[in-house]
Amino acid sequence: MTAYVISDVVGLDPELIAQYRTLARASIQRYDGQYLTNVGNTIDHVEGDWQPANIVLLSFPSMKRAREWYTSQEYAPALVVRRTALRRSLIFVAGADES
Fold first, then answer.
1. Predicted confidence (pLDDT) per residue in 73-83, tens digit
2. Fewer Cβ in 10 A, N or C end of the chain?
3. How many CB atoms sit inside 10 A of residue 19's CB?
């Protein structure tokens, strides 16, 4: 029942990024999420026009839990910081075991 949260991230302010990461990490853990990749990992472009800058991949035990995290009071302060810390595209994807 795994769900994935995929972000394509462009950093704007290094100090605010550090603050965002601290806030986000605590909220992700609270909602049973875990980082599968971090910003700065190598991206090997194989096909298509998508040229992501940095990919961050999270997993949650379910799509429900991922949505609860994203709309939570615990994550809300991180979202406020994110507005000026970084630019990103964000999607949720249900794993093959999600019904």
1. 999 999 999 99
2. C
3. 16
